[in-house]
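User: What would this chain look like folded?
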Amino acid sequence: MIAVTGSLLRRQSPLASATEQVRILESTLSVPPFTTRLERAGLPGLTATGIDVMQINVGRLCNQTCAHCHVDAGPDRTEVMTQATVDSCLRVLAATDIPTVDITGGAPELNPEFRYLVIEARRLGRHVIDRCNITILGQRGQEDLAEFLAEQNVEIVASLPYYQERETDRQRGHGVFNRSIDGLLTLNALGYGRKGSGLTLNLVYNPVGAFLPAPQKSLEADFRRQLHRKHGIVFNNLFAITNMPISRYLEFLLDSGNYEAYMSRLLTAFNSAAVAGVMCRTMISIGHDGRLYDCDFNQMLDRPIGFGAPAHIDAFDLAALSGRRIVTGRHCYGCTAGAGSSCGGVTIPA
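Assistant: Here's the prediction, encoded as structure tokens.
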């Protein structure tokens, strides 16, 4: 049985701070530190092997307030990346050969500098990914967003918890499913997800409850069949991502009495083969204020890059960061359970 010290469960309301979340995770009894589990598997501590992806979190402002959100994003958040920080990111891109820019939030499109960032990154010849919640496409003032993304040949990674209304609305809010379907149809009409169009539309699945995702291939087949049969929707790939015990999802686990069982599930499902492909090894994550992190999850836990590596975009050093030691914690079990989990889905191809 896994347990945490009782005092840690008496967290702040309504949501534990990043510091307290780390204390809860790192004080979970009977779950060994992640580095210890790596050692038992005969694996070294995690280190980066290069930087293929610059993931930029442009802020926590969002048009939705999703129950599983590890970012704690919402309409009332004020953290937004400024043009000065965007320009710092672009300067790093221009000085390096990092091939992919992965833009996330919040709803990244709500940042006033979003389109500027996309245009300039594309002008530098970089592949651009927009992590889109789909409903933003119908937001007032965003009526031309889908066309803009298509014109810029931006890959869209769209979050859709399930192919049925009840499960999606339970996680994301009333009416989100139907607005998401409208958004997907808009994207399909522009060519997204259609063979030969060159416009990539990938979907993201997160479990609605306190369990791990089913095998990615079977989920993709179910989503493809159901969305096409009921709505005529097509897409390229589906990514199954494990919910991380962070922020609102951690709060849900604690409030519902599922925390201990979920952490036990992650530990039991640890797969040493999934470690090699974890996203932090080839990614750098940039916060809205320019601070650098090994991944978006560490960013939300306020655990910046460590071990002497540059920790701000204005001090970016490609050589130093490409081989840096990675900051880990018990939340890392979420990326190494089963077939693994990353921003691009499983880390072990079927």
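The chain has one domain: 15-335. If you want, I can go into more detail on any region.
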